[in-house]
């Protein structure tokens, strides 16, 4: 039988509520559906005090009050002191007459036996010992439904439970309209009652914070809203965060146990057994939830006690088995712990557990179980933060040391490295800074270099010195890698030597993860400096080592770099294959920052191919991702790709702005700097700023590596030659860029300026001369063109050197000019290949260029090769 069919008007004792009922629309529909199930005779609303169990039950009862032939009745049980009084309380509400000598219990069962009604038994938690009464009612009155509210379940076989949670509130950035969040609606309605001038729009961010702090508890929200006539919402939020006693009600006509959140919790606290109190107050040391293992090892909690605390709404347990404590309850428990002088001992145990936890995660992070380790750290991040803060405050150097590495790799791989530096490392560095005249603790040096992250060479060198003094070879190797990345990004010639030293140390230590990371960094150095022969050789060794360790992070990096290198040379299918595989790894491993890199790179690849709509879709996804992870370099790259697309569309002002913003964000990343400067040259030409266009184009070409990316500069130079009156030279460059196998004609054949240039040159030169110039260009050597453009466009190239080249460097330079690779030069001069690389770095530095092509062009301008 459907309980809601054939409704008639019946009796009930439900009082009219004086305030509106807000939210829980979907919950009510699900509850009504459950009550419509003939098997559900007993439904218990379970939840902590103040969560709104009674109000929800009354609203459900109000909506179905006409569905029961004999009525719907509310029975308050809170005043009762014994379960034996329950029958009399129900009889009183039902208005059943009873004579002296009658047994209230039997009288009740007889009265209910043929009735069709709903009883709402409110606040059953202190009477659960008398729950057998409920079973008797159900057995003797088949058409009676019982709706019960309680802070713990009745634990009856017939019982169906409904766990009442807080109202809906934004957990992070709101992704729905304000009216979709019932917690915010409740606050706004109650605040308007107190202060008619209150508007949610004005205080939106603070109201969200208030709702988050109380986790949607309706009673706490109403108490907070009561202060809006005397305090601003941000002050209310601060007060809630700092003092549980702030949440009080000044209304006189509400029960004493609901006059404050402390009163609510005091009432619940009295219902706990002594062992439950002892365990709960110790559990208050946890933040953001905890596992059963942590509760058992840290605070000696048994499974039985944990289950009981869940039943009594002091703990929540999710589907994964993790436990959590409402923040206000956690504050209350922490107060009880402090009263028993147990705070320090509990914090010590908590720190020891999570320091060990992070140390145990480290091998998994560096091997094939990295995803599981990352997820474990993610789940316990707030506990790790609390443990770290306590360790730093107590100057527990050893504990901090055990956490550092796993914390660093987690931050880097999950896109939270900025947060880790600011909230973890920076604070610890400040606290651990040695006093004048004292030696720094080795842990301080480890923190120092990770806080800097290859941005400050003085910091790196200081950290390396500290590590060397205490004999920590692994840390010395790490500092060498940081220094090598710094030197690579700043065009310093020592990077290769530093990489090699780090590699030697890691190999001596048998550290496969360190070797894999060093080889990965070596590929970055080589691709950045343009030594592609060495890059491909190093890549094979690096891939072999990375697959051996199983580290997905380094595998991603290598695939990404291999894809970009293929892109440089016009092998777009290979590039897409590697980038898609890398993106799959990033998605699977939740590498948020590099996921953005990959999406942006695929967008740029689509641009190079001329698929501008696909490029736009990719860059939109990229911008959304990098906004979430707040990574400056990745934000810059997204802007670069968007600048190229905008430039092709002819919006040169916007393209220039995007490129200038990007250039600031991507420094000191050499490849991205060149990408930014190249699109700046395009935009400036489009705006008619020819000198600026020439300056940017010349700089990029001088900095460019020995790859097909040099072809990406040709369109601007073709435009500039035509502007300068060299129409045949411009036509030759067009012939080169449209016929070279590595040329990305997909984008520049669709650039309006190039389309117009082709028509203009054909008209000015005539069809035959234009075709002849085009054909000559198709046979040109790219290296020769690059050298010619550099010499003819750079007056500084003919200025004398500040420091002359040595004889050996001149010897190496001549062989470079002959087109020999580093390996071939080493064989020719009977040198070690690493020594040749050092000579190339040194001569580039003296010539004021960044690569072999620039060195040859500058040398020819100075007549050094004759």
Helix content percent band: 55-70%
CATH class (first level) name of the largest domain: Mainly Alpha
Q: What is the overall pLDDT average? A: 84
Number of helices: 43
Q: Terminal Cα separation, in Å?
A: 105 Å
Q: What is the spatial order of strands in the main beta sheet?
A: 2-3-4-1-5
Question: How is the main sheet built?
Answer: 5 strands, parallel
The count of β-strands is 7
The name of the CATH architecture of the largest domain is: Alpha Horseshoe
Please tell me what the overall shape is: elongated
Q: Strand content of the residues, in percent?
A: under 5%
According to CATH, what is the topology of the largest domain?
A: Serine Threonine Protein Phosphatase 5, Tetratricopeptide repeat
3D architecture notes:
The protein has 866 residues and is mainly alpha-helical. The protein folds into six domains: 25-163, Rossmann fold (3-Layer(aba) Sandwich); 178-262; 272-341, Arc Repressor Mutant, subunit A (Orthogonal Bundle); 355-532, Serine Threonine Protein Phosphatase 5, Tetratricopeptide repeat (Alpha Horseshoe); 704-794, no CATH class; 801-861, Winged helix-like DNA-binding domain superfamily/Winged helix DNA-binding domain (Arc Repressor Mutant, subunit A, Orthogonal Bundle), CATH 1.10.10.10. The chain contains 43 helices and seven strands. It has a five-stranded parallel β-sheet with strand order 2-3-4-1-5, with helices on both faces. α18 (397-413) packs parallel to α20 (442-452) and α33 (690-703) runs antiparallel to α34. Residues 1-10 have low confidence and may be disordered.
């Amino acid at each position: 039988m459907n309980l809601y069919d054939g409704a008639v008007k019946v009796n009930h004792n439900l009082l009219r509520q004086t305030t509106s009922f807000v939210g829980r629309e979907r919950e009510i529909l699900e509850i009504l559906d459950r009550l419509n199930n003939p098997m559900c005779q007993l439904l218990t609303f379970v939840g902590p005090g103040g969560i709104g169990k009674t109000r929800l039950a009354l609203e459900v009862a109000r909506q179905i009050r006409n569905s029961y032939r004999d009525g719907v009745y509310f029975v308050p049980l809170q005043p009762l002191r014994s379960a034996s009084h329950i029958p009399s309380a129900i009889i009183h509400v039902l208005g059943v007459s009873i004579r002296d000598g009658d047994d209230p219990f039997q009288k009740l069962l007889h009265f209910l036996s043929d009735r069709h009604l709903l009883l709402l038994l409110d606040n059953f938690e202190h009477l659960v010992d008398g729950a057998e009464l409920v079973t008797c009612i159900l057995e003797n009155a088949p058409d009676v439904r019982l709706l019960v509210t309680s802070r713990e379940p009745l634990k009856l076989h017939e019982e169906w439970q409904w766990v009442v949670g807080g109202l809906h509130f934004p957990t992070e950035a709101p992704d729905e309209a304000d009216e979709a969040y019932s917690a915010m609606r409740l606050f706004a309605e109650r605040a308007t009652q107190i202060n008619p001038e209150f508007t949610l729009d004005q205080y939106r961010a603070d109201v969200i914070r208030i709702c988050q702090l109380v986790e949607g508890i309706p009673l706490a929200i109403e108490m907070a809203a009561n202060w809006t006539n005397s305090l601003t919402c941000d002050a209310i939020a601060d007060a809630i965060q700092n003092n549980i006693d702030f949440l009080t009600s000044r209304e006189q006509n509400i029960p004493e146990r609901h006059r404050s959140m402390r009163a609510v919790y005091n009432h619940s606290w009295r219902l706990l057994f002594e062992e439950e109190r002892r365990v709960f107050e110790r559990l208050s040391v946890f933040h953001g939830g905890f596992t059963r293992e942590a509760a058992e090892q840290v605070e000696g909690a048994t499974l039985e006690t944990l289950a009981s605390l869940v039943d009594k709404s002091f703990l929540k347990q999710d589907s994964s088995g993790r436990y959590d404590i409402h923040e206000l309850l956690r504050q209350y428990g922490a107060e009880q712990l402090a009263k028993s002088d147990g705070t320090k001992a509990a914090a010590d145990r908590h720190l020891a557990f999570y320091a060990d936890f992070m140390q145990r995660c480290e091998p998994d992070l560096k091997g094939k179980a990295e995803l599981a380790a990352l997820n474990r750290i993610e789940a316990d991040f707030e506990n790790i933060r609390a443990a770290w803060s306590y360790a730093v405050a107590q100057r527990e150097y050893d504990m901090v040391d055990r956490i550092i590495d796993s914390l660093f790799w987690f931050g880097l791989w999950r896109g939270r490295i900025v947060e880790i530096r600011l909230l973890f490392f920076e604070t610890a560095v400040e606290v651990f800074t040695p006093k004048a005249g004292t030696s720094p603790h080795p842990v301080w040096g480890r923190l120092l270099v990770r806080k800097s992250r290859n941005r400050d060479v003085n910091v790196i060198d200081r950290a390396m010195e500290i590590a060397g003094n205490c004999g920590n070879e692994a840390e010395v190797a790490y500092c060498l890698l940081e220094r090598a990345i710094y030197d690579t990004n700043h065009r310093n010639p020592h990077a290769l030597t530093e990489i090699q030293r780090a590699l030697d140390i890691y190999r001596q230590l048998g550290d496969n993860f360190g070797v894999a990371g060093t080889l990965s960094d070596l590929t970055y150095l080589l691709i950045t400096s343009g030594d592609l022969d060495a890059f491909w050789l190093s890549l094979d060794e690096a891939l072999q080592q990375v697959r051996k360790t199983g580290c997905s992070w380094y595998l991603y990096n290598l695939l990404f770099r291999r894809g970009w290198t293929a892109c440089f040379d016009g092998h777009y299918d290979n590039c897409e294959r590697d980038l898609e595989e890398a993106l799959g790894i990033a998605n699977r491993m939740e590498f948020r920052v590099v996921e953005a890199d990959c999406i942006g790179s695929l967008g740029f690849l689509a641009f190079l191919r001329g698929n501008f709509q696909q490029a736009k879709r990719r860059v939109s996804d990229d911008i959304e991702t990098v906004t979430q992870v707040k990574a400056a370099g990745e934000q810059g790259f997204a802007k670069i790709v968007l600048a190229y697309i905008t430039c092709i569309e002819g919006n040169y002002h916007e393209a220039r702005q995007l490129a200038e913003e990007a250039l600031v964000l991507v420094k000191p990343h050499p490849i991205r700097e060149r990408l930014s400067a190249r699109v700046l040259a395009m935009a400036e030409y489009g705006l008619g700023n020819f000198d600026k266009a020439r300056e940017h184009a010349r700089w990029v070409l001088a900095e460019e590596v020995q790859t097909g990316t040099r072809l990406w500069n040709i369109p601007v130079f073709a435009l500039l030659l035509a502007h300068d009156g060299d129409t045949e030279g411009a036509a030759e460059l067009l012939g080169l860029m449209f016929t070279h196998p590595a040329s990305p004609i997909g984008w520049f054949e669709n650039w309006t300026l190039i389309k117009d240039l082709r028509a203009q040159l054909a008209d000015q030169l005539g069809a035959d001369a234009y075709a002849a110039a085009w054909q000559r260009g198709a046979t040109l050597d790219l290296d020769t063109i690059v050298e010619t453009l550099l010499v003819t466009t750079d007056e500084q190239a003919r200025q004398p050197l500040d420091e002359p080249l040595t004889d050996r460097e001149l010897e190496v330079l001549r062989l470079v000019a002959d087109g020999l690779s580093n390996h071939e030069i080493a064989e020719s001069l009977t040198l070690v290949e690493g020594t040749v690389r050092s000579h190339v770095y040194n001569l580039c530095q003296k010539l004021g260029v960044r690569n072999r092509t620039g060195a040859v062009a500058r040398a020819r301008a100075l007549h050094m090769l004759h």
